[in-house]
Amino acid sequence: MKKIITLNFIVLALTLTAFGQTNKIVVKGKTTTVTPEKTTTVTPTKTTTVISAKTTTVVSTKTAPGEKGVRDAFDRLIEGIKQADAEKVMSIYQNSDKILFFNNNGTATIGWDTMKKNRESLYAKTTNVTLEPTGLRVEMLGKDTAYATCKWKQTQEYNGKLETASGRMTLIFRLVGKDWKIIHLHTSPDNPDATRPVLPSEREVGN
Length: 207
Hints:
Blueprint: H1 2-19, E1 23-27, E2 30-34, H2 67-82, H3 86-90, E3 100-102, E4 108-110, H4 112-123, E5 126-140, E6 145-158, E7 161-176, E8 179-189
Parallel strand pairs: 3-8
Antiparallel strand pairs: 1-2, 3-4, 5-6, 6-7, 7-8
């Protein structure tokens, strides 16, 4: 009889455990509480987070203080030359008797008044001017000083004869009051005349 009761007790306990319930069992006047253990099986899930990083390149279009004024003055100079307008051209240069010009033909001119007279004489016989500056570069040397460099190609009719030339130019600017003025011009041709006193070694390509 004891074996039967004991066997029934074991079967009953196992049954209660399987159903996850808590029950009270009475065996021979004794109350036994059976609390089944809860077994939780956790299957870990691996989560992979992929972050797509976009690289953004920011190109600053901000110009240095004063650079816009220098470029505007340069544009007015080019416009004046195209129009063969001595007044407009000379308005971009500082009116000083010390201003220095190194001209395309290898000569030098000193003084604003002298250069203006030269321009007026030249432009009186000049028509159909085209001028194409390329590679303009402006470098600020401070709040009131800058220089500009470029290559240029120009065609015009002088005394009815078509002329074509190209070269390089450097302009020194100074802020005079509120306006940017040119205080020095240096221009030179790509192909200097063979009669000009240039060292033979300097005529080689790349110098």
